[in-house]
Amino acid sequence: MDMDVMYDCCAGLDVHQGNVVACILHGKRTSTRPKAELRTFGTTQSQLNQLADWLKSFDCQIVAMESTGVFWKPIWHVLADQFNIILANPQRIKGIPGHKTDKKDARWIAKLLRLDLIPASFVPDETIQDLRDLTRARKHLIESRNKQKNRIHQVLQCGGIKLTTYIQDVFGKSGRNMLDLLVNGEVITPEIVKPLVYTTLKKKVPQIVDAMNGFMRGHHRFMLHEILTIMDAFDASIADYESQIDILLQQYEAEVQLLTNFTGIQRESAGIILAEIGTDMSVFEDERHLASWAGLCPGNHESAGKRYSSKINHGNAYLKRILCQASWAASRSKNGDLGNFFRQKSRQRGPKKAAVATAHRMLRQIYFALLNYQEAKKRTLAATSVP
Length: 387
Fold this sequence. Notes:
This protein is elongated. Helix 12 packs across helix 13 (337-349). It has helices spanning 45-57, 72-79, 102-114, 126-158, 173-184, 190-193, 205-212, 218-249, 253-260, 267-277, 287-294, 317-331, 337-349, 351-385; strands at residues 9-15, 19-26, 35-42, 62-66, 84-88, 301-303, 306-309. The protein has 14 helices and seven strands. The strands form two sheets. A five-stranded mixed β-sheet has the order 3-2-1-4-5. The protein has 387 residues and is α/β, with parallel strands linked by helices.
């Protein structure tokens, strides 16, 4: 099959932690056998500047590399302001099996790029990248803290402490006071417990005292103390991350307010969504491509006129997760388009598929909301700049 050559000179980069293998293909577009230039560079700042100078010496029009871990980021930082650069999903540019070396990988990427066969991955601006790093790190910290909470439940059960029978959240203010009593090894009496519990728990003081008189030993108290110390460190770190996230979100306050108008989306969820998709919707071809990138589109597996599967792909797991959480929250709304849509789909296909379908619908609506806002903002700026 004939394919059109799109570039006279292009480069493919095979990226690793310690080196970058670069292949330049140059020659007339009508040529089926372009000249190939291969060189290996290090990944320090000075060595990447040498790579940039080498690419400039051939008047390279465009550069492509695959998104290998985070190793691509220093290269992007050096080359993005000097070249048209494409970051490729490794799944989209797999080479021929059995023919894999660093030089062959770089040349394969350059060949695909010369024919314009590499779809560009979405790379947000620096501020959005920083926001994304913070929100993802906060998510991992929260998950780590939850693991410590599970360990505390195990220690309590091993020590014969049945607090969770009467206190729904043992990590709330009342529950934490009870855990501190256990760590200190104090004799549990109603007189000690009553001032340390709040609201309706005061009516359960006798049951709480009974539940706390187990057979905890020094070993259990030590374990409980250490886990609570780790949890406190996680709490402090999460608070620091949230403070930094709030600082970055101040410049996107209008977009955050726009997203919080959607049923099921709170400020924290809005921040995560913006961190994953950014604010400029023009980088996506349309709302369907955004939904596909997020992994919320129905699968497309068809052969001989028969459709085999509509299972969604992996996509952006962070974005998919928060949108599905928002769709579950929207399902509890009595009124509103998203709540009604969820209930309709739930009756047809079950609640889990309804959650994904609602998340898909929500993301498409978010796309148009942000797109219209940006276009209105540009028109306002254009109108005010006219003398």
